[in-house]
Amino acid sequence: MPQIELHNLQFAYPEKSFNLNVEQHLFSDSMTAIVGQNGAGKSTIFKLLTGLLKQDAGRITIDGVVLNDFKPSERLKKIGITFQNPDDQLFNATVKREVEWSLSQVNSDKDQNAARAVEVLKKVGLADKSDENPYDLSLSERKLLTIATVLAVDPEIYLFDEPMMSLDWPSKRMVTDIFRELSATGHQVITITHDMDWVAEEFHSVTVMEHGEIKFSGTPRDLFGDRELLQRVGLLPPKIMELAEMLGDSKTYLSPQDYQNQNIVQ
Amino acid sequence: MDEDKRIVLENLNVRYSGMETSQLKNININTPIGQIIGIVGNSHSGKSTLCRVLAGIIPKIISATISGTYTIAGRSPMDDWTAFNTSTGVVLQNPAGQLSGLADTVADELAFDLINQGTSADVISKRVANVAAQMGLTDQLRQKPESLSGGQMQRLAIATAIITQPQILIMDDPTSEMDPVGRQQFFHWLTTVKDTTVFIVSSEIDDLCEVADSIWIMSEGELVSQGSPQDVFNHLSPEWQIPTPTVYQMAEKMNWRLTGDVFPVAAEELKEAFDATN
Ligand SMILES: Nc1ncnc2c1ncn2[C@@H]1O[C@H](COP(=O)(O)OP(=O)(O)OP(=O)(O)O)[C@@H](O)[C@H]1O
Ligand SMILES: Nc1ncnc2c1ncn2[C@@H]1O[C@H](COP(=O)(O)OP(=O)(O)OP(=O)(O)O)[C@@H](O)[C@H]1O
Ligand SMILES: [Mg+2]
Ligand SMILES: [Mg+2]
């Protein structure tokens, strides 16, 4: 399992309206969710992890190597990202070219890249859109296309910034299956999301950001079991807990299934 | 029936220019104004297309062939779009694409429509401060709109839609990037605006069931179901691939039913079904 370490990481945008400050943090789980309020600094940390923004101080290392010491093509094989707004990363004339372009950054064999592009577009359900202009796709299709571009390169670490945004339920299931497969095959998946039900059901590890700092790192059960902490960082528990609480039960539940398991005497 | 107080769509068909088949097929609706209508459906089912028609963006800005009729409180955007447009607040699915591009700060972006409507400076500054506080943007008022985070941008899009206090709100997936507390507060706020018709597309089924008077389900360009949340979610067809709300799932697993043998879909109904069983 690849490891990402942050040491005394500091960053501020030019207007200094926002400061990120992480003393020490280790990402080492196969599937981690990053949660936190709007403006907490979640997307900013992803931009620092991929070198899109440069920290003012401190250090990011991947498996002990300083991020900036990787050659660009090496770095792309280590760590890949899909952005929150797909329009920030799509610029080629066709869907297929978009995927092939990502691949060309790490591999110069055009035939191999073309074959790989077909494969990943099929995987995300965009095979029949290969020749369309990404600009003509719907928002959900553009989100899926960004996932295809990073799957094609197959880095060791995947960063997904709100991957489920605007997807419908069948697509959400498909993406969840892709994440499970990645995490089961030795990759590290780190996902930013606002969907607490999904975090509770699918993730082993959750990291909470607030005001540019990491305020919690642990299991969903520990996070959602700590109401005082949730309140402090401005988060809500999964819906099932809110409902149980209304019925006078303040135990920790991660899904309706979990509620049934704990409340039906066999 | 009193046309002045109803939303009426009759045999509405919409086909975008250059397309061979219709994207909206034979939509029929006759429902009162002043309610919250939740619109649900999978990708490509026509939700955004329906929003564009409801807002008059189709055919005024995006060209398409329309047949059938659409009136809300007796008025149609096809008759006088300018007048219609001033009574609507619209949030598009992609909030970044909705910025005017003309404002240097969030505060200016918020004031934009009010200035165009000739509102006095006093009223403008009060409304900007209020709506910014409501949407959690007070600390961002001096920031460049383009530099906002995704969720802040979405909050701004909602704020600009509601600042003119329109009678009709048309919102296409307005909370997809919002944090849980912001999302909850926004849905709660919807229930407090009186005499406003709200059309809201959302995949947040739990929230819709708490606030919506009526749910419309779209599938492949057709309106396949409409009714109260309880009615609609107790009669889903597997074909639509739409999940049930968490309340329903919990009640189903515990076998907590309401009279009439239906499952609850909102928190208060859940309490009722729970009390009846326990
Ligand atoms: N401007 C356009 N020109 C031509 N066809 C379009 C246009 N916009 C949408 N369509 C097509 O109309 C159909 C309905 O699309 P629409 O965007 O209304 O779906 P939706 O339910 O909003 O989907 P999503 O959940 O992905 O937002 C789709 O087949 C889509 O490809
Ligand atoms: N280019 C910029 N210039 C100035 N401030 C910025 C810039 N980009 C982001 N910010 C601010 O930095 C803060 C953190 O932004 P970031 O995008 O990391 O938040 P986030 O946690 O991803 O939020 P969201 O959940 O809304 O996506 C926000 O307050 C934002 O307004
Ligand atoms: Mg973000
Ligand atoms: Mg849409």
TrEMBL record, chain A:
PROSITE patterns: ABC_TRANSPORTER_2. InterPro entries: AAA+_ATPase, ABC_transporter-like_ATP-bd, ABC_transpr_CbiO/EcfA_su, ECF_ABC_transporter_ATP-bd, P-loop_NTPase. One of its GO terms (molecular function) is ATP hydrolysis activity. GO terms for cellular component: ATP-binding cassette (ABC) transporter complex. It comes from the Bacteria. Gene3D superfamilies: P-loop containing nucleotide triphosphate hydrolases (3.40.50.300). Residues 4-236 form the ABC transporter domain. Keywords: ATP-binding, Cell membrane, Membrane, Nucleotide-binding, Translocase, Transport. Coiled coil: none annotated. Belongs to the ABC transporter superfamily. This is ABC transporter domain-containing protein. It comes from Lentilactobacillus sunkii DSM 19904.
